Amino acid sequence: MSDDTFKKITSHAKEYGFIFPSSEIYDGLSAVYDYGPNGVLLKNNIKTYWWKAMVQLHENIVGLDAAILMHPAVWKASGHVDAFHDPLIDNKDSKKRYRADNLVEDHIAKIQAKINKEIKKARKRFGNDFDEEKFLNESPRVLKYREQIERIEQKLNKALSNNDLQALKQLILDLEIADPVSGSRNWTDVKQFNLMFETRMGAVSDSSSEIYLRPETAQGIFVNFNNVLKTSRTKIPFGIAQIGKAFRNEIVARQFIFRMREFEQMEMQFFIRPGTEKEWFSYWKETRMKWHLSLGFDKEMYRYHDHEQLAHYADAATDIEFKFPFGFKELEGIHSRTDFDLKSHEAHSGKKLRYFDPETRETYVPYVIETSIGLDRMFLAVLSAAYTEETLSDGSVRTVLKIPAVLAPVKVAVLPLVKKDGLPEIARKIFDDLKWNYMTAYDEKDAIGRRYRRQDAIGTPYAVTVDHQTRSDGTVTLRYRDSMHQERIRIEDLKKELDAKLDLKTWLG
Ligand code: ATP
Questions:
Q1: Cα-to-centroid distance, 154 and ligand 1 (Å)
Q2: pTM of the model
């Protein structure tokens, strides 16, 4: 998918009421967005799909909704005050600011693009006989590029894990990386920049009132460990799930809602017996991938990316990456967080955060496996995978959002073929009946073809059309968004049909 398609997706999202820039009448606020009438429906449906998969379908996972504001000591204990920063570099000529690691990653992506070009050329040359695996391992040119990537990655990982800002700058200089805007190679030194938003609480303004907007929802779960344990009769292994806002003062926020300064996370912390982390890590890796695949997008759109450079709290980590219009990027993180957080909160708060295991008769600080997905990123994944332009047999082009029906903002549109002959009255009755169960739209304006296109553009999977035949035999047409196929169905069977198509079990079962 090209840059051009990504632009089309962003403008489609605005035009059809999915996403607006924040405070637009004041020219917007960088990397902050608002969700419009269709956007909020899609966003809520994604939340529900995650929440039900995690909380409703797992007997041993309970929910939580912790506050955004927390005691500042939380962020000292979690390591965010000391370690939640990104390496920043400025270009002296363009005055543009970048994440130093991103500059190197973009350089790697360019080399990867050269490999992809070689593959494309070779595939063309060898046709059906082309063996990609073999080519990747034997083509001298590809091997050279792969070696380059490996060397750069090693240096980058080493510099990042040693917090060696000098080495990071040297890498940028050695690779002759230029500012993508100005082409200049006149760089400042690399500095660390803490990503937490600070604010003040109460009427006093000394430093004791300084607090942070939470940069992740996870800590609200850890500090409530005892409360949940005491009140929910949970036994290890068990999870606590939460959906909520998080804030990060990202150095460079770009790519629409992929990287925002205010965003939402859907996180689950799974508490386990120490020593079982490997098996639970792979369980959650697999389970979360299944959740993604249940939506029916192409399997090729997803891949795992195991981390070599681990965050300060993790002993294993993997990303589920998604093929966004701008390439494969992290959509969800699965982290084996050990007992880092609970232990650190014990040390800082002086309170015990332990579990008495009735099976082994031991008391211990549980280990944790975390699954963490950005709601907005998931929204972008759905939107970009769903966006389709199709040329129809009459040569016209229709834009359709092939959003999985279970997530679609509006499930069904009820349309009288014409605005007379009693058809609107019948259609209204059907609408009034279906709206109790499903987000339903009623539309009688314009020709039927235009109304179908309008529903296609917001991803409504089903359209019910009331025509003259309806009056004589009580049937309507049911039109399918993706195939545009239509079939006749009795009005009284509509609900049963929709129930079967939209039932959670059909999707997640
Ligand atoms: P990245 O490397 O992209 O900055 P991260 O590794 O810092 O992400 P985590 O701290 O693991 O991200 O957060 C978990 C999830 O939260 C991510 O997988 C992503 O979906 C989402 N997320 C993180 N930062 C942002 C952001 N600035 N805007 C939107 N979503 C975000």
A1: 23
A2: 0.90
